[in-house]
Specification:
Radius of gyration: 43 Å
Order of helices and strands: HHHHHEEHEEHEEHEEEHEHH
Structural class: alpha+beta
Oligomer: single chain
Number of helices: 11
Length: 363
């Protein structure tokens, strides 16, 4: 009788523990506000260190009838807790999905988002501006191949194989079987020859395009850059026509108050040759960082077409004269926009390029 009474007391204690765990469990499960919180509650209620597991482990010391009775109640409590966990898990998952849907909901009554506006690259803007000025003067745009022969790039332009000017060009020669004289053009001057070969005078053309040299990239040099070459051939053209043309270009490009200065220089394909400088359009010629405090900015090279160049294409150099000029678009853009490093134009940094939205070259 004594052992039966002791066993009954133990069973009663175990049943009481199960009831408390069931009540506590239902409360914890109901208070769980996330799937992670629910998993923590499940571990606390049914894990190896829980009171529920302790009751299960101690059940083996009871008499068979008491063990069977306690086993049934243990299973009932476990199933009740698991059912409550499953219900709460479904509720939490539905709430989570509803929250995700709400966060991603599109309010069709709101105004649409404006797309990010695009704009021309600053080099394209500068090039278009230069081309526009000369076409309004009556010049025609011609374009040619970027892969040239030695004849068009050098020899026809009065630069024979032994001419020292070749060493200044840092030419990129191409290794093409069967073609020993192919290269990437070093300037668009080659289009002077191609144009004059294809037509009789008068000739008034400009040739924009990319050119290539084996330059080491730095703040003022890049292996690929852009030029605009100009050529005029007609009867009676003189240095006065060249100066008038470039003076008109500078005023249109940089404003009516700009002044021009022509300085003697040497280029193999012109004679005489000059360098055009313009008064600084930022400081008015008083001196600033852009013009290196000199008041003048070197802009381009030009000159009267050398008679040898005219003869190379079959023009009568006694009857016809001409002038040519060439300018770098990167230099124009650097001066106009105050860009200190030419490499910035080629790095595709959106933060840099955004500065030029809606901005055009002055004029």
């Amino acid at each position: 009788m004594e052992s039966t009474s002791s066993a009954a007391t133990t069973v009663e204690d175990a049943l009481a523990v199960l009831q408390r765990e069931l009540n506590r469990g239902l409360e914890l499960i109901g208070e769980a506000h996330s799937v992670e919180g629910l998993r923590s509650a499940e571990s606390a209620l049914l894990g190896r260190k829980s009171a529920f597991s302790s009751v299960q482990r101690n059940r083996g010391a009871l008499p068979e009838d008491a063990r069977r009775s306690l086993g049934r109640r243990t299973n009932e409590v476990r199933e009740a807790l698991k059912a409550a966990i499953a219900r709460r898990s479904g509720e939490l998952e539905r709430d989570r999905d509803a929250g995700l849907l709400a966060a991603g909901r599109i309010d069709v009554t709101l105004p649409g988002r404006k797309p990010r506006p695009g704009s021309q690259h600053p080099l394209t803007s500068a090039l278009d501006r230069v081309v526009d000025i000369f076409t309004r003067m009556g010049y025609r745009v011609v374009e040619g191949p970027e892969v040239e022969t030695d004849w068009y790039n050098f020899q026809a332009l009065n630069i024979p194989p032994d001419h020292p000017a070749r060493s200044e060009r840092d030419t990129v020669f191409l290794d093409v079987p069967g073609h020993h004289d192919l290269l990437l053009r070093t300037e668009t001057s080659a289009m002077q020859i191609r144009t004059m070969e294809s037509q009789d005078p008068p000739v008034y053309v400009i040739s924009p395009g990319r050119v290539f040299r084996q330059d080491t990239p730095d703040a003022t040099h890049t292996p690929v850059f852009h030029q605009v070459e100009g050529l005029a051939v007609d009867e009676g053209l003189s240095m006065a026509h060249l100066k008038g043309t470039l003076d008109a270009f500078a005023r249109e490009m940089f404003g009516p108050d700009v002044r021009t200065r022509f300085i003697p220089d040497f280029f193999p394909f012109v004679e005489p040759g000059v360098e055009l400088a313009v008064s600084c359009f930022l400081c008015g010629g008083t001196g600033c960082r852009t013009c290196k405090y000199e008041g003048w900015i070197e802009l381009l090279g030009a000159g009267m077409v050398h008679p040898n160049v005219l003869e190379n294409v079959g023009y009568d150099s006694e009857r016809y004269t001409g002038f040519a000029f060439g300018l770098g678009i990167e230099r124009i853009a650097m001066i106009e926009y105050g860009v200190p490093d030419v490499r910035l134009f080629y790095e595709s940094d959106v933060r840099f390029l955004e500065q030029f939205q809606g901005v055009g070259v002055a004029g």
